[in-house]
Amino acid sequence: MNFNLKIWRQKSNKVPGSFQSLFVKDISEDMSFLEMLDKINEDLILKKEEPIAFDHDCREGICGTCSLMINGSAHGPQKAITSCQLYMREFQNGSEIYVEPFRAKAFPIIRDLIIDRSAFDRIQQAGGFISVNTGSAPPANTIPVPKEKANQAFSSALCIGCGACVASCKNSSASLFTAARIFHFSKLPQGQAEKTNRVLNMVKQMEKEGFGACSHTGACSVSCPKEISLETISEMHREWRKAFLNKTT
Amino acid sequence: MNLFISFLQKTIGQKIVVGLTGLGLCLFVLIHMLGNLLILSGPEAYNNYAYKLHDFPGLLLLEFGLFIFFIGHILLSILLQLKNKKAKGSISYQKEAQGIKKTNFIHKFILSQGILLLIFLVLHLWSFKFGTYYETELNGKKVRDIYLLVVENFQKPLYTFGYSFILLILFNHLLRGFPASFKTLGLSHPLYVSWIEKLAWFFSLIVTFGFLAPIWYIYIYL
Fold first, then answer.
1. Given A69, A172, A238, which is nearest B87 (Cβ)?
2. A214 — contact with chain B (CB < 8 Å)?
3. A224: CATH
């Protein structure tokens, strides 16, 4: 397969970037998108040109490191996958493909397609944990958790923090990420004691990082490789409202 | 008071106020639409309704409340939009998402729609509330003949077509804003979220057709 790629190149956040046109040929339809980028990089290195900088790690959709905006869609056109799980057979032979980094003020570009997502780490550090030492894993069912609650907590815990929600949101809102990290804990008995502070602190940090407000368009949920529900945001708003009023009155 | 100011300084707090004022304004447009339907009953019914409404002792207070709702909704929406623009940064994506990840049209231009509705609101008040004062007699009393002014205006194509266009924008604004308000207030739940979406369609259609019916009745039949 052959493709006409337009790849965003930028040396750092301090200098402006632009698209580099690259015509790539002999791409196997069984190659993943990242494997195609690997092949391009090998060719660029052989030609003594600067390879394309892009993030990757597990290459099986569980680490959330790969973060590419492909033809205007976070992680490409398919639903519920990450960029590393996208295969070239999904594209038409000879088509033009735009590859850009996830864009948001809170995600500054480090180089080319690599962005700094440490804003997510700081949100997590603001309260996305249980502060007591829980020790090693206790035997199953020591603390009974209703199946429905366990499922809800698990759905939220699936978040891999890739940033697709921010990238696809017209407001660059991190609401889906923050809500998922809040509900991972607050749906479980162990997360109850710090529930109020958790939602207040994590939302405060989210605002401090400069993310936008949620408009409930649902673009985040549709782009989320783990299909985290938009309802978690509504629940976060409800929890925040209760926590704010309890804490300040 | 301090609690309210502190609440308003938070993004979610601002969103909640936009949602609350939005739902309040939804109630207002519903009542306004029901009142407008009286045009179909003839001049006596409509003028009598307008007279009773203006004779209501708490009207000034209600109008002031309505003004605060409008101002709160508009100013906070603009403030949030500015915040969102800043969060997005200056470079936008080269291509727009297609297929399943494509943004639904109703979510686009929401602030532009709001600004158009604001311009319309000013023109609307200018044309009717502060428009030409005709007088008529109702049960032996001299009252304002608002029916005549409405008929006079909606016999003009510019008014009828212009209002119809604005009502389509209102429809879109309601369809998108009504369920979003519930979600912002945290009143949405997986169990009944689909019912809120259905209610939004029902409410938006009822309000839009309720406003369209009298103006097109005037344009076609009077």
1. A172
2. yes
3. 1.10.1060.10
